[in-house]
Model the fold of this input.
Amino acid sequence: MSNKIVNWFKYASPQSFYPVAGKMIPWFWVLAAIFGVTGLWISFFVAPTDATQGEGYRIIFIHVPAAWMSMFIYVVMATWAGLGLALNTRLSGMMAQALAPTGAIMAFLSLWTGAFWGKPMWGAWWVWDARLTSALILFFLYIGFIALQAAIDDARRADKAGAILALVGVVNVPIIYFSVKWWNTLHQGASVSINKAPAMATTMLWGMLIMALAFWMYSIAVALTRVRAIILEREAHTEWVKELSEVKQ
Amino acid sequence: MNWGSPAEFFAMGGYGLYVWGSFGVCALLMIAEPILVGKRRTSILRSLRRERIAETLDTQ
Done:
């Protein structure tokens, strides 16, 4: 038991995580490319035309993955932030900081693609509906987290302030998820849920799931690349950074 | 196969603006983000190398 704890803390140090992340990044890019190409091919060439929405429904293949990732990344970010507060590990805050911009982009994409889907189907780019409003709040939470951290010069204090914001904001994630059940909204209910059969054609479902995997792998690859840059920035004056081969050349 | 011709593919059954407006912006951001992160890495590495050179000059 104690050995396991020691091992986890070993990888919680930026010095040992930096090379591990560097080795993992190319694999996540490869996976992102494979899932991305397969997913796009299914999205446009395999999935049939929808009976009611024609070809317009194909926005689902990026809308749902982006929306899922925006919520998932937020939970992961808040978890890292909370770990940082509880255990005072240096890497946690860096991970939270690295995830925020990618999460913000996913939140923005879910809103943007949602608007481009809402316009032809509902007749409006935007409505103040529970699902849309809570998703907009998620985007603002990401922006708030990034802005708050950018406003505080001391990195460790910025981590702590950001962590509190991230943890308070996590309450919004279940609100987004259940908003279509709790309130009478214009947004449709969940097409995929754990306790019932998916309410969509099999090829459409597979296309969406594979695109979600592509978005997931992309997010990991780009967040790991960013965390490596953050590690170098924050540990710039340490000996191990000065001894790195990419610094020595 | 859903499409008879490339023109049909780009028209998306009349939903071209909405489908390509969504996929286009998505592609744009997912290309821009890795480029920006790459630039961030290049810039910190450049300043680390500069500092290293400055330090070796100091000790000489």
User: Anything to note?
Assistant: Residues 33-46+57-248 of chain A form one domain.
